[in-house]
Amino acid sequence: LPDGGNHPLKQILFGNDGALYISMGAQTDHCENANGSAPKYPCAEAVGTRATGSVWKVTGWQKNQPQSVVYARGLRNAMGMTWSAKGELVVTDNGRDFINRSNAQLSDAQLPHDELNVVAQNADYGWPYCYDHNRVNPEYSRYPKACTNKVSPAVLLPAHSAPLGIIRYPDSGEIAALRGQYLVALHGYRDTGHRLVAFDSNAAGQPAGKMMEVIGDWAAKGKQPMGAPTEVRAAPSGKLYITDDRNGAVLRLSKQQ
Prior knowledge:
- By secondary structure, this protein is mainly β.
- The protein has strands spanning 10-14, 20-24, 54-62, 65-73, 80-83, 89-93, 113-119, 130-131, 135-136, 155-159, 163-168, 182-186, 195-201, 207-215, 229-234, 240-244, 249-253.
- The strands form five sheets. It has a four-stranded antiparallel beta sheet with strand order 1-2-3-4, with no helix packed on it.
- It is globular, with a radius of gyration of 18 Å.
């Protein structure tokens, strides 16, 4: 598997179809050249049968090689993956960095937003050409149609909040206030990060609506270190487990007021 560049870590998820889904993080920020100069169009990294910035679907192995297809592309670093109640793939996605370097009128603090995406096979979610709701990245401004036919995010998250793990909390879980909600670990060190948040499901079973804070006020203060929630998982009972890689801890949330 591709293992170089900016995002060598992989996320995996098994489907009810028996296939293995692997998030293949982009090797660059926005397909820039090695010296940081303007990228080429189309981006070679984002096309072909071994595209990164994508999700691969693996259905088997032959001679130690995965039998795989690019299930969906245009996802810069989808490190959180889960299934909706209706069997759709839902992923977190980390937006690009340094957007202000190519256009000083764009705020690095506020743009681009990170994302939740509902992923369909063969769809393209826009990386590296687009940010937010299919706005063209400044490096690709010469190609105004670069974001045509790209799929918009289901939900925009705070910029640079660094969403990682995601689950849909069990409908029968013991924390009644969280039942059926999507829980997202925001890992980032900026003010938008270091918290656990939730989203309701819409009629289609997809994440939607206003972001709600489940665990907040997680900045460093006194003897409390800043949190860095990385992954979130629910036991069959509904007890919630959260990994914190800044502090080397596994936390359990068993009650929500």
